[in-house]
Amino acid sequence: MINPFQFGKVVRDKQFCNRQRELRDLAITIKSGNSLWLYSPRRLGKTSLVVNTFSHIKEVKTIYFDLFNIRDSREFATKYLNTLTHELFTWKQGVTSILKNLSGHLKMITPTVSLDTMGNPSIGIDIKSNEVSQTLESILELPQKLNYSKPICIAFDEFQEVERLDPFLKNIMRSVFQHQQNVSYIFLGSKESLMNTIFSDAKSPFFQFGEKMKLDPISNSELTAYIKSMFRETQLKIKNETIENILQLSECHPHYTQYAAYVAWGLINQKIQQDENFKQIWLSRIIESQSDAFRTIFEQLNANQRKVLYALSDIDDQSILSKETMIKYDLPPKSTVNTALNSLLHKTLILKSIGSYRFENPIFKIWINKLYD
User: Fold this and answer.
1) Lowest mean pLDDT among 97-101, 114-118, 271-275
2) Same domain, yes or no, for 52 and 177?
3) Residues near 85 by Cβ (< 8 Å), separated by ≥ 6?
4) At what angle are helices 132-145 and 169-177 packed, to 10 degrees?
5) Is 146 a member of any domain?
6) pLDDT of 330 higher than 90
7) 294 exposed, middle or buried (CB, 10 Å; 0-12, 13-18, 19+)?
8) Which of 73, 181, 332, 356 is most buried by a 10 A CB count?
9) 147 lies in the same domain as 255
């Protein structure tokens, strides 16, 4: 049998757990022609949410573009133009017809077409250093200029990367996007401070450009029903206690829930009994599989960062900066603790919410805690 749980990639259809309200709200926004920015910590499912929403919308042309691995504004221009060309043109029209159409809409750009070893076409452009801004503007204008037969919605994943690519790129985007009538945008981001700066800072060109949606962990009851249904489909039985242990570990984070359930399913499929030893076997498998990666991360941290992480792994609702916590875990002065916290936030090892801190990866939290046992 094939393990029904998937992690580390976009999940679709029955592997996508619930999110019915978010799917509905996002679909309404897209069909209304409005733009939206969507924030969630990494691996909470924002990409899967957008991809699944896109798959059910027929009256709007939807396009997905990921900024994460783009190196600079020139590469952005080339790859974005390729995405638009493949999504908005039919190659059956012929290469000559497409190049002629593109040239008619793109200022100062002469596109070319090359074929890879598999025969797939790719658009190439030569961008001179003094023409980068005009080239970007011309490509960003393309979705509106083509007069496509349907409204268009374009999702930019990891949108906070525009700051790294070119600090002026968001200015060009805003100046173009605000005049487009039949094109809307979804901006996805996993770094809250950067996304807030882009969309909530009055000095930013994207200030109040579109509504905000924040993705939260999925509810315990929804994940419980999802896990049971996946086991039921594969004709295996999982005990309620095992599900409770999975969700306690994952803290209802979709990615870590999928991963923990994947491991549990594998053990149950091997006929390992869900007795009093099952949790220890299941948990050990999970931690061991991540141990090498965690050790690499840990070795790159200084002594104060390690102390702070251990304290965070061991306290419940108590503040890391409380007098009791500082004494119990022999923490350095508050200014040094704050420096360590900011560094850990920057590394996205921890997240901050309403003045409290928590681990981005709940499995790493357990690993850190066991390390000091």
Assistant:
1) 114-118
2) yes
3) 98, 102, 123
4) 30
5) yes
6) yes
7) middle
8) 73
9) no
Indicate the DSSP class of residue 44: S
According to the model, what pLDDT value does residue 332 have?
95
Question: What pLDDT does 84 receive?
Answer: 92
Residues 207 and 245 in one domain: no
Is 107 inside any structural domain? no
- What's the alpha-carbon Rg for the chain, to the nearest Å? 24
The mean per-residue pLDDT over the stretch 326-336 comes to: 94
Counting every residue written for the chain, the total comes to 373
One-letter identity of residue 353: S
- Indicate whether 248 belongs to any domain: yes
> How many structural domains are present in the chain?
3
DSSP 288-352: HHHHHHHHHHHHTS-HHHHHHHHHHHH-SSS-TTSHHHHHHTT---HHHHHHHHHHHHHTTSEEE
Distance CA 63, CA 81 (A): 12
Same domain for 66 and 158: yes
Helices (H) and strands (E) in the chain, counts: 16, 9
Give the Cβ contact number of residue 94 at 10 Å. 10
For residues 278 and 241, give the distance between their C-alpha atoms in angstroms, rounded to a whole number. 10
Integer Cα distance of 214 and 38 in angstroms: 6
Determine the Cα–Cα distance for residues 298 and 183; give it in Å rounded to an integer.
Answer: 45
pLDDT tens digit sequence for 342-371 = 999 989 899 887 778 989 999 999 999 998
Which residues span the domain enclosing 242?
Answer: 220-274
pTM of the model: 0.85
User: Does 311 lie in the same domain as 200?
Assistant: no
In a shared domain, residues 261 and 327: no
More confident residue, 291 or 111: 291
Average pLDDT over residues 168-195: 92
Contact criterion met (CB below 8 Å) for 274 and 281? no
Lowest mean pLDDT among 11-15, 214-218, 245-249: 11-15
